[in-house]
Amino acid sequence: MCTNQSTTKAILVVSFGTSYHDTREKTIDCIEQDIAQTFPHHHIYRAWTSKMILKKLKQRDGIHIDNVREAMEHMQRDGITDVTVQPTHVINGIENDLMKEDVLAFSDSFSRITFGVPLLTSEQDSREVVKVLTDAFGGIPKDEALVFMGHGTPHYANAIYAALDYTFKDLGYHNLFMGTVEAYPSMDSLLRLVGSLKPSRVHLAPFMIVAGDHAHNDLAGDDADSWKSQFEQAGYPVLCHLKGLGEYEGIRQIFLRHIREAQ
Questions:
Q1: Which residues cross the membrane (predicted)?
Q2: For the structural domain made of 123-245, what CATH number should be given?
Q3: Phi, psi (5° rounding) for residue 220?
Q4: Letter string b/e over residues 126-156, b meaning 16 or more CB atoms within 10 A of that residue's CB
């Protein structure tokens, strides 16, 4: 994907990816469209980092999306000289580290390569994300709990999830909770923490750029180990909000700011 052929500057938008076309259109596509409109003198390129998703799209739909190395080669062939790489990753975790390695392998092929940072990198980022979410879910009563599902990672950057949960509480949102699918805070922790609030209802929402497989299955699925099922088993009425972070304009604005700060 490329726009405005009169310049040698480019922005490479790097996402984990999704095999759900409907959520892609409302999240990754919208982020890229906002970037293209905000930076009209740049070419816009796409790369996804999930090998599993790239393979699935190729086999199931006949769709090819560049991985990071392929996108760098693509820009090299197109005569791009200056590249700003903006990940749509939530944290500075394993995917982001590997992405940087792939990009920097092409350092000699470009005059300038700069990196924008993932969504949650600074304290300002965390506070802006909290504001976006509390504005979006402002109608939830104080006697009901809102639980966000992050991905989680063995990378030390996983600490940001617990820090964000603390930020919710520090700013007065005692009925908001942050957990992860694959790390800490875990579902076991959430059941205890949410239980101490004794909410009349539990709302669940993905804390991921797209509302894809984790949102549909691990969060809202009917299997006994889904978050929805576990909270229902604990006695709470549950309402799921399957909206990816990329659907919120305020979240997309943070990525635009990160690009400006990188240039």
A1: none
A2: 3.40.50.1400
A3: -105, 5
A4: bebbbebbbebbeebeeebbbbbbbbbbeee
CA distance 101 to 239: 40
CATH of 9-119+247-262, one of 3.90.226.10, 3.90.330.10, 1.10.8.10, 3.40.50.1400: 3.40.50.1400
Q: Once rounded to an integer, what is the mean pLDDT over residues 211-220? A: 95
Q: Which entry of 42, 151, 203, 214 is annotated as an active-site residue?
A: 151
**pLDDT value of position 61:** 97
Tokens (6 digits) for 9 = 């500057």
| 125-182: pLDDT as tens digits | 999 999 999 999 999 999 999 999 999 999 999 999 999 999 999 999 999 999 999 9
pLDDT at 7: 54
Domains 9-119+247-262 and 123-245 fall in the same CATH topology:
yes
Question: What pLDDT sits at residue 3?
Answer: 44
The yes-or-no answer on residue 151 being catalytic is: yes
Domain spans of the chain?
A: 9-119+247-262, 123-245
- CB–CB of 14/28 below 8 Å? no
Query: What percent of the chain stands above pLDDT 70?
Result: 97
Averaged over 231-255, what is the pLDDT? Answer: 98
149's enclosing H/E stretch is: strand 145-150
